[in-house]
TrEMBL record:
Annotated TM spans: none
SMART domains cross-referenced by the UniProt entry: EFh
Alphabetical list of InterPro entries matching this protein: EF-hand-dom_pair, EF_Hand_1_Ca_BS, EF_hand_dom, KIC/PBP1/KRP1
UniProt KW keywords: Calcium
Protein name (Swiss-Prot/TrEMBL): EF-hand domain-containing protein
Gene3D superfamilies xref list: EF-hand
PANTHER family, per database record: CALCIUM-BINDING EF-HAND PROTEIN, CALCIUM-BINDING PROTEIN KIC
Domain EF-hand: 62-97
Originating species: Coffea canephora (Robusta coffee)
Statement: the UniProt record of this protein carries the keyword NAD: no
């Protein structure tokens, strides 16, 4: 994963998770990940909440500028924070294999809602 000048290595488990959990289950897990990282009072992922909770993801050694870069990468509205939608979009963008199959994923999620 490359974030504005930084390289963070991770194994992409998202396609396997989608396969095992289905579209709805995977979205639930993304929501759980968001809530794990968010500032409970603000309901957003902030630099402070990311620093505080990054150890839960094995990212405790990341520097502030690396964490800030992660926020900037997903921050679509420019407020310096991530809401749940921005977080989910970022997670999709960071998974090349999931991006390839996202159409099928979205169709499955829509069909489950009907």
């Amino acid at each position: 994963m490359a974030l504005k000048g930084y390289l963070v290595e991770f194994e992409d488990f998202f396609p396997t998770m989608v396969e095992k959990l289905g579209a709805e289950g995977f979205l639930d897990e993304l929501g759980n990940g968001f809530r794990l990282l968010m500032d409970e009072e603000k309901g957003l992922i902030t630099l402070e909440s990311l620093k505080k909770n990054s150890a839960l993801l094995g990212l405790q050694d990341m520097k502030d500028d690396e964490l800030r870069s992660m926020l900037e990468e997903g921050d679509l509205d420019g407020d310096g924070k991530l809401n749940e939608m921005e977080f989910c979009v970022l997670m999709f963008r960071l998974s090349p294999e999931l991006m390839k199959t996202s159409r099928v994923f979205v169709e499955e999620a829509i069909l489950n809602e009907l």
